[in-house]
Every structure is written in C-alpha cells, then in structure tokens.
Design brief:
Blueprint (H helix, E strand, L loop, with lengths): L1 H7 L6 H4 L3 H12 L5 H19 L4 H5 L2 H14 L2 H20 L27 H30 L3 H5 L6 E2 L4 E4 L3 E4 L2 E4 L2 E2 L32 E4 L2 H13 L16 H14 L22 H13 L4 H8 L7 H4 L4 H20 L3 H10 L5 E4 L8 E4 L1
Antiparallel strand pairs: 1-2, 2-6, 3-4, 4-5, 7-8
Amino acid sequence: MEQEALIRRNLWLDPRDGETRFEDFAEEWLETVSPRLELNTIAKYRSFLDNQLLPQWNAWPLVAIFNGYVEIERWLSELHEEFAESSVSSYFALFSTILNGAVRARMIPANPCNGVRVTNGEFDTERLVATPAQALRAAMRLYELGLGKSGFVLCLMDVYTGARWGELVGQQRHEYDAERRGIEIRTPLKEVAGKVYKGGRKSDDHHSDGQKRPPTRRGNSRPKKGRTKTPAGSRFVALPPGIAVLYEELMDSHRDPFVLSTPEGHPWRRSNFRIRFWRPAWDGNELDDVGAGERRPPILPTFTFHEGRHTHATWLTEDGIPEVARRARLGQKMKGIARVYDHVTPAMVNQILDALEERWLRSLASLYPGERAKLVAWFPHLRSRRLEPGPGAHRHFIAI
C-alpha cells in the first residue's frame, strides 16, 4: 500500500535503479551532455573521471554513495592532502553534478554532496601586478630569446588588452579592425589533448588566407563550439595607438593566418610557450643554468601570463576607469541593477586608450640608453616619441 501511495504521488524510486554503478551512470551522463560542451570541457571532465572520480567510486552503486556521507568526507580529505584547494573544488563539483543527474533520473532521492564543505578556508593566492616598465623589459627579453616581434607584441598585448591566452594566440588577420584599430574576440584558440582548435575546428582546418568561415544555414548566430568563455567574452578590444602600431607591424612582417604565432608560423601550445620562453623571460637565469648563454636578472619572478590580465584590470582601476568600462574590456558583465542601467560610452573608451598610451610612453621613457638603442634597432618608428603626462603637466619629447 505504501508503495502504491508513493507511485500515485510520483515519489517512488525503483530500488533496482539505485543499484546502478557510478561508473556506468557517469559514462552515460558524459556521453549525453558532451554534444553541448566545449571540447576542452569534455577533455577536462574525462580527465577528472579517469584520475580522481572513477578510481574511488567506479564500482559503488549510486544508492551506496547516497548513504556514504562519511566516505565522501574521507575522500575529500585525501584529495586535499594531494591537490590544491581549487583543484579539489573542481573535482567535487563534477562529482556533485553527476549525482544531481542521478537525482533527476530518479535513481537516488537526493544528492549526498549537498551541504558538504569542500574548502578549508585557505587564503587566496596573492596575484602579482607588473609595472609598464617591467612588461616592456619582459617583451624585449622574449624578442631576444628567439621569438622576435611576435613574442614582443604578445607580451605587450597581454598587459595592454587584458585578454586571455586563447583569445590572443587565436587572433587571425580578419579579426583585426584596421579602421577602429582593435581586435575582435569571438572564437579563442583552445588546446585539447595536444591539439589546438579555433571555432571548434582543428587549427590546420582553417583557410590559409585567414578569411571568415563560409555562412551556414544558421545565419550569423554564434557557433556553439569554440566560442568565448561567456557571452560577455565576445567583444571588441581597442588598442592604444602605440600598441596598435606594433600589432600592425607584426601583421605586415608575415603572412601566417594566426597573427601571434610561433616563429614557424604555427599556433602556440601554452605549456611549450610557458616553459621555454615565458618563465625564462620573467624569472631570469644564472650563468650555470642549463642552456644559459648569458646571465639575465629576474624581472618579476613567477609572474604568469594570466596575471597580465590582473595587471591590466589593476591599471584601469588606478587610472580611474569606470567599472562598467573595465568589465566590458575584460569580457565580464556587470552585476545587479548596474547591468541594466550602466553602459560604455565612447568617452570611456577614449579614457582607457589615453591612460594606456600614457603608460606605454612612460615605459619607453624609463629605459636605459642601451635598452633604447636596442629597441630602436628592432622598431625604427620608436626613434622619437612624444610623452604626454596627465592634465596640468608639461609635455616633452623622449628620444629613444
């Protein structure tokens, strides 16, 4: 009678469904949701399942996990001993998401992950913020490490646009607006299992002339695969004049479809760039280091490419840029009622470009004579630049 009452109220769960193994349900869940996920998200979920979730829970029936609160807590404690807190949070989030699916599939009555505390309340890692002079010197070092103009401009684009890694290295020629002097960020480059994808397609599938994809029956709608992290991430980012000139000069120096490419013209792999070039540029090296040709003092040790995004945001805050303009440039949406009523104006965009250009000019003025001579040899147009400080200050020229 009790079972019949539960059935009538649509509350009855078949006990046989609860005996489904976690591995079987997890694999079916991933196969079902994969068509809606980005390739890198699928790869991430696959890695989490194979390395963290299935070794612990593969043979467990779903109903046993539902009744296994203590075992879940023990598993979390073991993860915290081996992995960073942010990683543990990611593993547990996927575990909880899969179990939510089991609840909706009426295999278990509730998610046992609800209410489980994942974090230890650790302090957030303090982010480093580079100065314009440090960014310029790191860019020069990347030039000298064999990357030439591409490495130089990539470093400066990092701190002067605040764009993410994939948004920059995925830039193609047709995505630069020569009239407005800025880049369109629509389909960033994504790396999955050693292969790079642009717009959901392998990078070597793109037209060699860098033209846009042919129109589809879906019209101008944004492709699901390969899109930006969030809808707000699809944006136009104007470049300050000094950086725009360098970017255009880089485009004129080669005919590869990806503007910020390797010296061989291929798309960058993040780990390869970080280990071989980014870390030596910022961390420096000693004469006895392997492969060290000369000693290079550190600029800002451990500074990461993503911290260039934090640096850009901090610069804009220091320069008094309104929050709505800062968030729009970084590809973030405003929170609360400000999302409805606050809007970016041309005056705000000009304020950003003026502030960034002033930082660029001041970084040029900070170079030592030997550094200036080297920079002029690479970029002759920099031989004479005018530095314009803020209102009320005296204008003067810097010759480098």
